[in-house]
Amino acid sequence: MCGIFGITGHPEASNLAYLGLHALQHRGQESAGIVASDGEHLRSHRSMGLVADIFTAPVLEKLPGEASIGHVRYSTAGVSQLKNAQPLSVEYAGGQLAIAHNGNLVNAPELRKALEADGAIFQSDSDTEVIIHFIARSKQPTFENKVVEALSKVKGAYSLLFLTQNQLVAVRDPYGFRPLVLGRLRNAYVLASETTALDLIEAEYIRELEPGEMVVIDEKGLRTSQPFAPTRLGRCIFEHVYFAKPDSVLFGTSVYETRKELGRQLAREQPAPGADLVIAVPDSGVPAAIGFSQASGIPYDVGLIRSHYVGRTFIEPQQSIRHFGVKLKLSAVRQVLKGKRVVVVDDSIVRGTTSRKIVKMLKAAGAVEVHLRISSPPTSWPCYYGIDTPSRQELIASNHTTEEIARYVTADTLGYLSLEGLGKAVGDTERNTFCTACFSGKYLAGQVSPEVAAQSAKDSAQSGAVAAEVAVATGPETVPGKHLTA
Ligand code: AMP
Question: Which positions bind Mg(2+) (predicted)?
Answer without folding.
Answer: 284, 346-347
